[in-house]
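protien #1 (seq + structre)
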Amino acid sequence: MDALMSSLDTLVTNPDLAPLLSLFKGIRNGAVYGAKVRFPHALVMIFLFRSGTIREKAKLVFKATRQHARNLATFALIYKSAMIVLRNINPAEVGKEGRYDSFFAGLLGGYAVFGRHKTSITQQIVIYIFARVVLALAKLSVRPNMHPLSSLIGPDARTKMESHAWPVFASVSWALVMYIFRWHPETLMSSLRSSMVYIYADSDHWDSFRNLLIHNK
């Protein structure tokens, strides 16, 4: 057994196999992370808010977990494969990563995995990513030498903008979602809409103490 493990260690540390093995580990890590993130979330949400038998709910939990894991594993495979290809066709220097390789690899993976298959799971992942991108872009927008107007932002103004960025983002996000929920609820994702109905709309209706505090309806 020790000899076998030693041989495997030698094999997996071979630098010539590193690109191929990085694909394998990317798939593995994407699947594991997707399962770890989705399983507890799906377990709680489905068992609390979905109707059906325990068997039916368990199937839904498994389906959601499998889809999330598959999505992240597939994206990792496409992204890392594209990065390898782009490095090896770099006209400036073969084998060197280009400045925008990650952008184009992400574009390809994003379209293939999330753009072509619109489901509740893919929507949730993309919206999660989008929110983080907006916050990151807000931080980048006030960094020195990031764009032509960077020179107009002094150190004091930069500090104030950074300290107020999150309160503004949080306040405007909630203002917009509540306005949309009030006047155009059909445009929101069904999961978000149902949770908002439960909290903000159903709380306006009751006809007894029982459905005021014990049961919703």
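ok now protien #2
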Amino acid sequence: MGSEGIIINHPRKPRFLCLHGFRTSGEILRKQVTTKWPQSVLDKLDLVYVDAPFPCQGKSEVEGIFDPPYYEWFQFNKEFTEYQNFDKCLDYIEDCIIEHGPFDGLLGFSQGAILSAALPGLQEKGVALTKVPKIRFLIIIGGAKFKNQSVVEKAYASPIQCHSVHFLGEQDFLKPYGIELIESCVDPLVIHHPKGHTIPRFDDKGLEEMHSFLDRLQKEVTSNSEQDISSEKTS
């Protein structure tokens, strides 16, 4: 028998919506990730990068390093306890998921990481992402928790159940807050690195741990896809 007409179904990769840092952009995050992470990791992921909804309203720390335009997800006071345009930000992310999804998880750096880690809890409480499937996976780089009490009560009311990996930099100014976030997660994988608030490269141990994490995600995505196909055939 020839090979004509034979369709080979390759398992789809875990798909992530990527949320960039404060006053940067989706393109900047893409460059940071693709230049720092090895192809062996990138090949196991389907990453979609989007810009935040609001143009940069002040100086960006990446000026002179990366070209503009720069964007921000929402605005906040010095203590990070009061936010402007936060609800609009949540609606915008939901629109991005509807337009570009579906997604299995979120990858976030800095402001994008803070958002990403809070969204599963906000979704569970029915105050965000009510029109899209449940977030199941998180990749958090330089993350922390929100400080606004209203958001805290909703986002972290229950332990974060998503499979999650957290990159924790020894010199990151957010490290203490990143540890607080990790303590709110169920069975998180923590990959330590010696750098500061940045997208890190992998050492041998971290790379091995990341591959194991992604293999676990792939098995879950493949299993869910097979269940969906089976359900469609029997319905």
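The longest helix spans residues 204-234.
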